[in-house]
Design a protein that fits this description.
Blueprint (H helix, E strand, L loop, with lengths): L1 E8 L4 E7 L4 E6 L2 H9 L5 E4 L6 H10 L3 H9 L18 E4 L8 H7 L19 H24 L1 H13 L11 H8 L25 H8 L7 E5 L5 E5 L1 E6 L2 E6 L2 E5 L3 E12 L2 H8 L10 H17 L4 H15 L9 H22 L4 E6 L2 E5 L6 H22 L3 E13 L2 E6 L4 E4 L14 H13 L3 H6 L9 E4 L6 E4 L2 E3 L3 E6 L8 E4 L7 E2 L7 E3 L15 H14 L3
Parallel strand pairs: 1-4, 4-5
Antiparallel strand pairs: 1-2, 2-3, 6-7, 8-9, 9-10, 10-12, 11-13, 11-14, 12-13, 14-15, 15-16, 17-20, 18-19, 18-21, 20-23, 21-22
Helix pairs in contact: 2-3, 4-5, 6-11, 7-11, 9-12, 10-11, 12-13, 14-16
Length: 583
């Protein structure tokens, strides 16, 4: 059973809306402690789902059941910025299975509602109101709260794969249902029997014995140099302030600018577009393979063999299409992240650094051997993109492929790592993390925010995404894509006034709401949308928004483009971004 819920807390009032889609019930409770306790008593073994309930709503729920003033707990969490669990040890005595649909990268529930095209207008009732709410104010707040619960349900449906992944881990590894509130990385640590330990050898780096570097040996020497054993530091500037300097080595590799650092290797020809015969060469499961092959798994794990068993089971399940395979794959892929997280039982910074350094040096080793036979287009953590030089006839492609395959095979035999090949005929590349590659079968591979396939929860300037993809993949002009579209939602830009700012402004007026849906406008009376840090401060224009815009925060699903929409602004922006891809 699933209970979707949300609390609203004021000085003299509190209320909660709970929707159970299985029972097809909605429960609204206002200032009634006994009714809330009865609801919880009959559903202790059910799952409660909310947005940010991991950090907020569950503690309001528990505070009320414990007899505390929910407003005091609300202020403890929001104003004092303290973790809810630390308010009282009594919270631990209340059984409550909580699952949070919020992700760390989210801009808030209202932003997600905006992406979905839904109503993002906020309640007119201020949360700092210094009195009891009237009946009308209670009813408006219930309506607002119900809307947020419904939007939480919409968000959960679109992120159900993450929920299923957690449930898959619990089922596959026979974990208690009380682990439902843990992250995938936390569950991976538990599955591997990791125990939190302290280490003081973060930069005690080792190097692979199989490594063969000649031309780029100075990169190995950079990592070996004790003076380079730091990530970043603050240095003074001329104006008396400080700035953060990241420790990295900028070099030229095979004619391509690269950055070597403690976080990985990255290099690409900027603003590149071309056609011909390309090979994308990726290491199969690079970090898991390094952790197993070179004994670099977190030393906090009880039994390193357990990780190897899980990895091998994952490979076998892939062949048999076992439905539990995603759970095993998650453990394989989430373990490295835990090694970098101080709050995770897998934390082992030395091993994490070793994994990263081994990966960079071995990939550089391969580039060095391939360099005489191809043109390097990009390299990124676990793979390379190379181009065949000269003619691209079928005979020449075979000769080229066989030569590259020979070099890669020698490297595989020496390192124990395995490579996968994909063939492409056309490349559009903004940088190492933003590109479109057209396969020999005509299917595109897309990476990066400008060109990735947008979902309902990141539907920001989708018309620009469509225009770039249609041009680079199908040869359709930017003007055709934009001028022929009549769906208003395609042109939306979602902006939010963050906690660093006091408020937003539009057309000289202060905006009471924080989240807004913005469109380019042809009306000369419209101005830009901005944000202000403090009273009297400069009003800063939101990035990627027009000089003239209008705001529509209502539901726009199915709404057509109005005459005042300035499509030329979108055409210009799309062309600016195309230039960044070498077009």
């Amino acid at each position: 059973m699933l209970n979707f819920y949300d609390f609203e807390v004021f000085k003299e009032d509190w209320l909660v809306v709970i929707i159970n889609p299985i029972e097809k019930t909605e429960t609204v409770i206002v200032n009634d402690v006994e009714r809330l306790a009865d609801y919880h008593a009959g559903r202790e073994d059910q799952i409660y789902i909310g947005y940010n309930n991991k950090h907020y709503d569950q503690y309001i729920f528990k505070a009320i059941l414990c007899g505390f003033n929910p407003k005091e707990v609300n202020d403890y969490i929001i104003k004092d910025k303290k973790p809810g669990w630390s308010y009282s040890s009594l919270f631990r005595q209340i059984k409550m299975l909580n699952y949070d649909v919020m992700l760390q990268a989210d801009g808030g529930l209202k932003s997600l509602e905006g992406f979905m095209g839904n109503n993002i207008k906020e309640t007119s009732i201020p949360f700092d109101i210094d009195r009891k709410l009237t009946v009308d104010e209670i009813n408006e707040t219930i309506k607002y709260c119900r809307h947020d619960v419904e939007q939480t349900m919409e968000t959960w449906l679109r992120r159900k794969a993450s929920f299923d992944a957690i449930m898959g881990l619990i089922e596959a590894f026979k974990l208690p249902i009380t682990d439902i509130g843990r992250t995938e990385t936390q569950l991976s640590a538990k599955i591997l029997g990791a125990t939190q330990r302290e280490y003081n050898d973060e930069f005690d780096i080792s190097f692979p014995e199989c490594l063969k570097l000649n031309k780029y040996k100075y990169v190995l020497e950079w990592f070996q140099n004790p003076e380079n054993r730091w990530y970043s530091k603050e240095i003074p500037t001329r104006n008396g302030k400080t700035k953060t300097v990241v420790n990295k080595l900028k070099i030229d590799v095979a004619g391509v600018p690269h950055v070597i650092a403690w976080g990985g290797i990255h290099g690409a020809i900027p603003k590149y577009s071309g056609s011909g015969y390309y090979l994308m060469i990726d290491v199969t499961s690079l970090y898991p393979s390094l952790m197993i092959g070179f004994n670099l798994l977190s030393r906090s794990c009880a039994d390193p063999k357990k990780y190897t068993e899980i990895y091998n089971t994952n490979i076998e399940m892939k062949k048999t299409k076992n439905p539990l395979r995603p759970a095993y794959k998650l453990v394989c892929n989430k373990t490295y992240g835990g090694m970098k997280d101080k709050n995770n039982a897998l934390y082992d910074p030395r091993q994490a650094n070793n994994v990263c350094v081994y990966g960079q040096l071995l990939l550089l080793d391969l580039i060095e051997k391939l360099e005489p036979h191809c043109q390097l287009i990009q390299s990124n953590t676990d793979g390379l993109l190379i181009k065949m030089p000269g003619a691209d006839t079928e005979t020449n492609r075979d000769i080229f492929f066989n030569k590259i395959d020979d070099v890669v095979t020698e490297w595989e035999n020496r390192t124990g790592l395995k490579m996968e090949f994909d063939e492409y005929t056309k490349i559009y590349q903004k940088d190492v993390n933003n590109y479109i590659a057209i396969g020999i079968d005509g299917k595109p591979k897309r990476k990066g925010g400008y060109v990735k396939k947008l979902g309902d929860l990141d539907y920001d300037l989708p018309i620009i995404n469509d225009a770039l993809n249609n041009y680079m993949i199908n040869g359709v002009s930017v003007e055709s894509t934009i001028n022929n579209c009549n769906e208003l939602i395609k042109f939306q830009k979602i902006v939010k006034v963050s906690s660093k700012y006091l408020c937003g402004y539009h057309n000289g007026k202060k905006l009471n709401e924080k989240c807004h849906r913005v469109f380019a406008s042809l009306n000369n009376s419209d101005g830009y949308i901005g944000k202000q840090k403090s009273r009297g401060a400069t009003i800063e224009k939101f990035a990627n928004t027009p000089e003239k815009c209008f705001i529509e925060n209502g539901n726009i699903n199915g709404v057509e483009v109005p005459e005042k929409l300035d499509k030329q602004w979108y055409i210009n922006l799309a062309k600016e971004r195309l230039e960044q891809f070498g077009v």
